[in-house]
Amino acid sequence: MHNLQGYQLINKKYQLNGATVLVDAHRMLSYWQNGMADFAKRQPFTLNTTSGLGSLSKQFTANSILLLNAAGKLNIDAPLSDYLPEYRFAKQITLRQILHMASGIPDYTELLLADYAKKMPDASESHLSYPILEDLNGSDALQQIIELLNQHPLDFAPDAKGAYSNSNYYLLGHIITQIANMPLSDFLNQHFFEPLAMTKTRLGTQHADANSYDDLDFTDGKPVALGRGHYQGGDGAVVSSLADLAIWARAVLQRRILPESAWDEALTLTHDFYGMGWMKSRTQHWLSHNGHIFGYWAFFDVSFEKQLAQITLTNMSPGVETLKKWQEEMANWRTSL
């Protein structure tokens, strides 16, 4: 029997504005929902509310590449130059290294954040991300990013280590579009969201039911709307509900959609850091991926050994330190299972 009482006590203690769910491979075991999806409209945040996933979206991007690889439409051991020759270091890097965050490509969001932080020194990262990503909505967005990356050296030699960089999955999103000859949104719909009946899950932050709000430690504890944005990138633009993510969690636990060998690759961490859309969890022997875009946050932890997954969505951070404490308590609770 799972310690569901402990799970609910933590939820009641922190009162995150959003929802959280615990599932096994077959059913929902427990959930919590609280607060508002949209304060102005007095719209409550429920299990069916769609909210931004941020970098949790990378799971779908990684799996898309693995599907194309299994179908022989691309080769993850081929150099990036086969797909994006305009990047000046493309011959030195393979798609596999990009999938594993071992490419050395600098993080375009960090490069842009540094410039925006000078203009808005008192803004939260949630606030800063809004103008940065809104500037990447045009048809020339890929060209903008490659031109930016071409101005900087690699952070390290490819495969020397692992280090998180959104650039990796931004580029993969465009490679999927190129190889599949369709928009990334269509590919995700055809291969993941429609087959799994994830009826509310879409690419594009503008589709979120929930508005996003600035971090409460930057707003004197008052909800200040940041908006939904219009971001479309493969590194962080999926919106989904907890009801849909529970379906996804069960598909993950049952290792569906991908060939078995692809799951083995996806779940194997390289440099003890990153698999393909997966990282170490705060809970030992669990895997995870979190996400953050605008005021949206997502947390996804899974244990194949225990056949359990915990997923949380919130559209307003209570503050960095409070969020860390919540994560630590949830990690300790999962350890007790």
Automatic annotation (TrEMBL):
The residue ranges of the Beta-lactamase-related domain are 14-319
Question: Where exactly are the transmembrane stretches of this chain?
Answer: none
Any one Pfam family here would be Beta-lactamase
Q: Which InterPro entries does its entry note? A: AmpC-like, Beta-lactam-related, Beta-lactam/transpept-like
Q: Which PANTHER family match?
A: BETA-LACTAMASE-RELATED DOMAIN-CONTAINING PROTEIN, D-ALANYL-D-ALANINE-CARBOXYPEPTIDASE/ENDOPEPTIDASE AMPH
Q: What is this protein called?
A: Beta-lactamase class C and other penicillin binding protein
Q: Which organism is it from?
A: Lacticaseibacillus rhamnosus LRHMDP3
